Amino acid sequence: MDKPTVTTSEVRDLLTHFEGQEITLDKVRSELQIERGTKSFDAVRNIFLRLVEARVIRYISRGNYKVIMPVSPVSVFGQDREHRPPFELIFPRDFETGMEMDFANNVTIREGDLITIGGVKSKGKTTLMMNFCGENVDKLPILMGNEYTIIGEDGWEPQPRWFNRMEIMGQWIDWTDENGQDKFTLMPVHDDYAEHIVKHRLNLIDWININGERLYDIGKILEGIKRAEGRGVTIVALQKGDGADNPRGGQFVRDFSDLELLLDGFGSNEDDILLTIKGAKEKNAPIVGNRYSYTIRDNGTKIVNFRQVKQCNTCYGKGYTKTGKCDTCFGAKWTDK
Length: 337
Hints:
P-loop_NTPase, 7 helices
């Protein structure tokens, strides 16, 4: 006796297991054990046509569809809703003065925010990330990325250069709790970051490697991270070309960043850094475009002489005048403001 013809209800029940995913007619037939030549074989196609009209699935190409993820409206004022305060993120401090980076008071960081740090190679990305970690270590941050771990003889272990820096910073930061256990969590994750983000926590990723031919992928990576962090905050370091206005990935990075910081060299001293506020979604002062300089000391652990700078009025930011190196900025292109 022939099996009963497949029904729309049976197909819809199956599709609930594939919400948000692509699926083919052949996949549905296989899952429902429908053989070629039966009435159900052709019925599946007709059912799919009706489900496209009902917006249960979306047509992609011949035989290929995407199951639409159901979405319900979110009530804004129709119910009592908790007013969430800003995320209490502490910015790095000038080691000599103990003062937090002065623009920190003009930036509001919210739960679910993403901070991106685009830096030229060897221009202090890891120093800034480690200082963010140190200042916020009591929030039990999560660390992952290419700078922190390597594969040793017995499995994953801290990257030696990074571990040396952590030991130095241990002179003024309590990295461990009363039981001698790490307050932070070091994860040997170098890819698929969104899958390892810890929800409602401070996550730091230093740094994300991107294929030069697929820079647009960074948009999807950052979008996935923001969706995964819940009420937490994530700080991501990215590579930037020397003199470039954005990190690698350009506008795809800007699309998802709530605070954008850029790091470049400052003058001829390789340990002098120029920090630019490229963008900030929530601020209480006109800080976007402001530039600051500081010096990195003690094997990339300390930030000192943090101050705001402006373009040199003598050489107009060129570093040189008609007579040679600028006598005002000494070729740095910037002067203290």
